[in-house]
Design a protein that fits this description.
Number of strands: 7
Distance between the termini: 66 Å
Mean pLDDT: 92
Low-confidence stretches: 357-363
Structural class: alpha+beta
Largest sheet: 7 strands, mixed
Bound molecules: iron/sulfur cluster
Order of helices and strands: HHHHHHHHHHHHEEEEHEEEHH
Helix content: 40-55%
Number of helices: 15
Radius of gyration: 24 Å
Oligomer: single chain
Amino acid sequence: VGDVASTDLAGRLLAWFDARHRDLPWRRTTDPYRILVAEVLLQRTRVATGVPYYERFVGRFPTVEALARASDVEVLRAWEGLGFYRRARNLHAAAKAILERHGGAVPSDPADLDRLPGIGPYTAGAVASVAFGRRAPAVDGNAIRVLARVYRIREDVSAPSVQARIRDLAAALVPVDRPGDFNQALMELGATVCGPAAPACPSCPIEDLCVARREGVERTLPRTAKPRAVPTVPVVFAYVEMRRRVLLVRRPDGGLLAGLWSLPGGERPPAADDRAALRDLVRDQTGLRVRVEEAWATVGHAFSHRRWAGSLYRCVPVGAASAGPGARWADRGDLADLPLVPFHRRALATLASRGPASARREP
Ligand code: SF4
């Protein structure tokens, strides 16, 4: 592979991994299902955040079958707070597909894995190599950074053609012996030594094989196209309570916070008035007409590609209060079991701790 000796690189990475790897719960198991759960969970989540979620998730759904037979609400509730909720729905769909197509056993072939809902080449390669010892590459952002430096790749690594080249490089490097450990070692090196801003090259086991290091350009790589600025979008939400029940709506299956239960409201046009926009949103989503009272809390939430900023208003129903399809009045006792937008759960807890009388006086 290029001018870097691949056997040296694999051998050194494996020796370093044996001595230094982090002890993580999914590394203590050979159960392909648990490895699949961990890989999906870590697609967009940091390791430290992911550990307690992983343990709760596999405790709640210990087998493919348990996950496949769970309800959407149970699965989303277990995922609540992790973000990128499409992953939870895909993992749920993958468990059902594994039960139907593969008798409940996670397939070992990367091509079969790749055909499961939400499983792309990275996850397929990771599960095939780590759980089954198949010689398949698994290239995440950490591995891309390491390989871009080791091979001094100057092109934009977000370009699909460059990513394909890096995957080919990785595929040629994966050894027959211990392919899963090799893949994990490459990613672990990127996560712990070869960091984005300040790679710790003097502690790196492949320092003398690294072309970028040799040429003193490691901090300038990898290159990516400038990320687009994240827009701030105004939002308004309604807290509507009646006889100690709270009005909730289920968010659509696609898009942000997909499938979670939410207070009514959402994004409003930039030029619109908060109160008028909120009345319209509540009517469209629930069929209820409301009077918008005082603002009770501010809302600020950052997604990967946009930021929400706005207010949560107390609202009072005007006229009939029966909620339409996709909306419900939820008893406070039911909230624990419902997958809720996490910052709405926090707001509801804060409002509950103030008590209805004092909350009503809040500006
Ligand atoms: S020598 Fe430095 S830049 Fe090269 S792989 Fe190691 S840590 Fe990364």
